[in-house]
Every structure is written in C-alpha cells, then in structure tokens.
Amino acid sequence: MKSQAVLGRSATINGELSPATAFFDVVNPATGKVFAQAPACEREHVDQAMTAARDAFRTWQADDDTRRVALRAMADTLDAAVGELAPVLTAEQGKPLTEAHWEIGGAAQWLRYYADLDLPREVVQDDDSEFVEVIRRPLGVVAAITPWNYPIMLAMWKIAPALRAGNTMVLKPSPFTPLSTLALGEIWREVLPPGVLNVIAGPDPLGAWMTTHPIPRKISFTGSTATGKRVAAAAADDLKRVTLELGGNDPAIVLPDADPAQIAEKLFWGAFANNGQICMAVKRVYVSENQRDELVEALAVLARDVVVGDPLSPDTRLGPVNNRPQFDRVSDLVADALAHGAVAAAGGEALDRPGYFYAPTILSGAQDGSRIVDEEQFGPVLPVVGYRDLDEVIERVNRGNYGLTASVWSADVERAAAVSARLDCGQVTVNSHGSAARPHLPFSGHKWSGVGVENGPWGLYGFTDLQVIARPATASSSSE
Ligand code: NAD
To answer: Beta 168-172 vs 405-409: how paired, if at all?
Structure first.
C-alpha cells in the first residue's frame, strides 16, 4: 500500500501509473488553501484509457466467476485502505472523518452486493418447437463521470454494476475531489486485470472529451441537471446509452397530524447531512400553517446547536461547503431569500473563519416562486413553507421540473403512504428522508432529475443490452 503522502496523486491507465505533465490544484475546503496537485489528463490520456478499456473488454466479459471474485477482492482492498483513504476524502471534500469512513465502508457494501447478484438468463420458451432465451450482454466500455459530494460512493454505484455485468470503464471524478477516486485506481492496480478500470482526472473539459469519444458505448453520469443535458446531447450523435443521475429539489411534506417536536431531528438530518450536499437531501419543507412556527423553532434549535467546524475533529458534525462556487451560490440564495421577505430563524450568513463554512440556516417566510424554494440549493440552508391545503401542495410539488426523492411525515403511516403514491418522484420515504438509497433498491430520478436507474438488479441491467437467442428445439433442450 502507498504511503498517505502520495495516495491519490496519479492516474491509472491499463493497470499502471500514467505519468502526467500538467497538474491542477486541489483545495481543502476547511482552510480554503491548496493542499495537493492532481494530474490534469489530456486528450491523449483519454485515448489511451479508452483503448485500454476496449482491449480489456474482450476477456473481462467472458468469465462470470472471475468478475464475482474480483469484486469481492476490490471490496476487501477498499476496507483495508479505509484508514488511509478516509483522510484524503475528508481533506478534499470537507466531510467529517467519521462520515468519510462511513462512505468508504458503504461503497464496499455495494461491491459485495453486486458480486452476489446473478445476471439472469431467462428461458421464455422451451417446448417441442423452440428453445428461446433472453440474455443480457455487456455493452463494452463505459465512460463514468461523478460529482464532488460523495466521490467514492457515487463512483461505486457505477463501478460495481458495470464491471459485474462484464463492461470495462474509464472513470473521471469531479475536479473538486479528484484524489480519493484516483486512489481507487491505485489500490486496485494489483486487484483488477489491466484496463478493466481506468481512472483519469482533470478540469471539466475532460468530461466532454470522454462523452464525445468514439469508443465508449455508455455514459454513466451523476451531476447537475445542466451538465446532464449536455451529456445527453453529446451522447446522441453516436447513440451511446446514458444513465443520468441529476439534481433534485426534494420536498418533505409534513401532514397536520405529525408532531413537530418528534420529527424535527430526523427532518433536520434529512436536510443537513453532508451539509445539505446530497442530491436527495430535503431541499424544502411544507408544513401546515398552524404548525409552521413550532417546526421552524424546533429546527432552528438544532441548527444553532450543531457543531460545525474542523472535519478532522471527532466532535464535528458538519464541515465546510465543498467549494467556492457552491459557497457563493448558497450565500446568494440566502441573501436573495432574505431580501424578499424570508426570515432566518437560525444562521443566515457565512461563519467568520477561514474556509467555506456557512452557518446552518433555517428560513421561514419563503414562498413558492422564490429562488430558495424553486431551485436546488445543495447546501446548508432549508426553507420551511406553510400550507393550508394538502392537495394544493401536492400539485405544486408535482408541477416542478425535478422528481428525485420526497418524504411524507405523519402519525398515520397509511395516510402518509397514500400521499406518497401521489408524488411524481423516484423514491418517497415515510417519517424519514433519503433512507431508501440502498444497494438493492432502484434509484431513479423522474423528469429533470434523471434518465435510467442505478442500484439493484435494475442498475445492473442498465449496463447491458438484451439479446434473444431462438433456436429449434432439440431432444436435449426440450428435456432439460
Ligand atoms: P456538475 O454537473 O458540475 O459536475 C459533475 C461532473 O461532470 C464533474 O465530474 C464535472 O467535471 C463533469 N463535467 C462538467 N462539464 C461536463 C461536460 N460538458 N461533459 C461531461 N462532464 C462534464 O455537478 P457537481 O456540481 O459536481 O455536483 C452537484 C450536482 O450533482 C447537484 O445538482 C446534485 O443534485 C447532483 N447529484 C445528483 C445525484 C443523483 O444521484 N441524482 C447524486 C449526487 C449529486
């Protein structure tokens, strides 16, 4: 294993360190200072990585058991590396060290889940006349592109099913968090055959070079809706398959029978975990008008009390916002809300310390039509909006462009489930938020929140094409 000083500093192409001639800065968001340099891959690296992946595909697709064994070995290596990897993730992403450990441990679970999952061959006809099977074939090379909020976990939602199905991959992390993903390539150089997983890094144009490259047959992208649309357009020319996991503006709808004091803590963490930088975080709360003040105050108490600070300190629950543009965006959205009549019951401003720290903010008085309610903030600020009529709230929520996740909060679970079924989004949870992101459950955004599915067997199928093989019956096939 490499020493921590160099873990995550080199690209992996064809199973080897790929020397770089150019580098870009990586900033620690807890200090606002550059702390590392990552390799800035060029077009020639994209060519080399794609070619290596295409060459590796020939043998990697052939043997199912080899792939199962490799995924388990990847999980073991990842677990063994957590002590070195977690500080790298924290340094570049800003999440508390305990959460970096959790992210890496969770990623290993994804590898094990897919190692155990079968790629089915379905016999759809077996009689005297014909034997007909439907099989799933891997697509070839997958170009995978990830964001900066959960670099390791979200990469694993792609790596595990894509490799399990027999594809090979070229993976590119966000330029804000390149190191932990580069480290994955490094720790698996001895575990995977050369070329099966290539990891390259660089500023945003690298992503566009990947999506327009002729070799990949699929693009698996997680990031903003704006970039996702560009990816879809780039893929169209070559009819590459796409899976797009995009933005959300996820509502929590509190029914009038819910007890604000009882739900506040779960609701708070549904919104503020990872500093609100989760695609499926609660982005807005709707609560009946007569309960609004009580809920706002309960959330504000939590926001004021939560320990925000150095992500390496064991007491810290929330670190900094990941990067300067995102910090500026959160600041702008809060300023805009306050200028248009919202009131900060907690927070409302940046913290006076180096780095990108923003006080956890609870806003009351913001309405639909304001930026903070209508747009995805992706940061530590939560608007609480009062309502009088539940049907109208459901209609308002469904009218928006996003449809990732939602939650419904109530003392009556059946009633909440009935409301859930009326919401146009990929996952709805009752009396919790975001808790259905698990290896075996489908994760798929409706409308502008995405195209395609990750996780579960559906996520595996997304890395395959169907093939029918129909042949005349033989004595052996019909008696099997
Ligand atoms: P982003 O769209 O700015 O960047 C995502 C990735 O795309 C990065 O690796 C970036 O370098 C790359 N990229 C940029 N331009 C590209 C181009 N033209 N072609 C190809 N790749 C390009 O997103 P971000 O700011 O890193 O992430 C935050 C967003 O991601 C939020 O909107 C969040 O909701 C979303 N997200 C969605 C999910 C999900 O599963 N639905 C999960 C996490 C984050």
So the answer is: unpaired
